[in-house]
């Protein structure tokens, strides 16, 4: 037991000086733990991150500097882990060369749409690194075998990339995004629309009422909180006609996709894109991202308006990481730091101690 000593009050005239204590400052409510600095998968960013059947699942990713594991810049392998330390290669990369058959497997990709919906993992659309836009939707219950659910019916919301994808009220939601003509030919467009589907085949467009969020995408992860979809920041990628990227730090939510509430037009965290968002411990979370350079800050909020920064983040700055909510913890995995590190954030108990 630590003894706390106090000075004796000193009386000067009629003024009593308060006792001065030596109590230690309170510990933060949360603590990061490095689970492993070198997971067996190759470094990557933009990999899909899903929690499904009590495991974390890492899907695809991008690393143009590693042609051994990413011969075509992106790959389509799938890894899974129950604890962040032991990772298993469930599906090896088949996206190797021009002989790849797009009817049998999904093309390598990153920053696509990833959701768990109707007890399955889903990949919705993709990126532009193949020189074209992905208008495919894939489904799997084991991570190894994938069904191309819309093989006979391309999605009606293409071409687009960098969209925000959420599973909400028994539907898959595709929100925003844009075309990137310098990488894949298409008319330059920055989307401000919403599409929903229960099966990945038939899609319906929702028409939001004004006011609602400006055109954007580049939001990793997803946030469904208090029975509402939340949009936290985001931005647009530069194009020929709009050479300056846009960065946002506004916060919006909706219970139906039609009526939107702006909880704050300017949160205290820096405007950013390629960040990750999540819901953990009854709070919204915003982690890392890009705002001209990589970031390492972490913020949380119970209402979307009032935000608290979690201090002393130990991991390196990054964007397009893979963030999981799994086993009572928030997980930060890999990203544009291009390391295969795995970090776990856990809440301390009422006495400020770690749960284990």
TrEMBL record:
InterPro entries: Kelch-typ_b-propeller, LZTR1/Attractin
Domain of life assignment: Bacteria
The keyword Repeat is assigned to this record: yes
Keywords, ordered alphabetically: Kelch repeat, Repeat
PANTHER family, A to Z: LEUCINE-ZIPPER-LIKE TRANSCRIPTIONAL REGULATOR 1
Stated name of the protein: Galactose oxidase: Uncharacterized protein
